[in-house]
Amino acid sequence: MELEPDTKSEYEWKINVSIFSNRTILSQLAIGIGIPFGILILLLIFLIDPENINYTYYALELIAGLFFFSYLLILLVYRGKYEVSYQIDKNGISCYSPPDQAKKNRTINGLTFVLGVLTRKPAVLGTGIIAETKQSVFIPWKDIQKVTYKPGQNTIFVKGHPTQTIAIFCTVENYKSIENVIKQTIT
């Protein structure tokens, strides 16, 4: 199905998604943060040296503190919400950070980059760079390889090339319309 140019505005919206209660975001956090730190915690527990148990407790306390301060940072900077905008038109699907959110993201990404440079940690530096490049993602219709619909969560996952993945968070009101547009356009 070809989208009509004059209906483009029908498929443009902004949504605030709760970071700490949305299943999609929580599962991504579990993968990105939970698995590595979970492995680290398990290693610390299984490799406890009885003579140096205080160091193990200290390491576990540092990890708990990191989680707590990350939680506070997200609450303070983002107010616990992820704000994102979408545009679906005849060319494809765009996902981007609205100006206010983009400004906050640029600040955090810039600080991450600088921290990586100052500490000489390429992984931290790379995290800042990658996060900045994900401020806006566009997938042309022809590049869409896989779509997963989650009507219970009002979310649609669209995958293009390996670096092109979008989680489309819909409102209760527009989910069915967006699902229909995507299904009709990619078939």
* Biggest sheet details: 4 strands, antiparallel
Spatial extent as radius of gyration? 20 Å
- The share of residues in helices is 40-55%
Widest β-sheet, arrangement of strands? 1-2-3-4
Estimate the mean pLDDT confidence. 86
- Quaternary state of this entry equals single chain
Judging from the principal axes of the Cα atoms, what is the shape? elongated
- Percentage of residues in DSSP E strands: 15-25%
User: How many domains would you count in the coordinates?
Assistant: 1
Number of helices: 5
Structural class of the helices, strands and pairings? alpha+beta
Spans where pLDDT lies below 50 across 5 or more residues: 1-9
For the record, give the distance between the C-alpha atoms at the N and C termini, rounded to a whole number. 8 Å
- Strand tally: 7
Description:
- This protein is of the alpha+beta class and about 190 residues long.
- It has one domain.
- The protein has 5 helices and 7 strands.
- Strands 1-2-3-4 form a 4-stranded antiparallel β-sheet. Strands 5-6-7 form a 3-stranded antiparallel β-sheet, with no helix packed on it.
- It is elongated and about 65 Å long.
Question: What structural keywords apply?
Answer:
disordered N terminus, alpha+beta, 187 residues, three-stranded antiparallel beta sheet, four-stranded antiparallel beta sheet
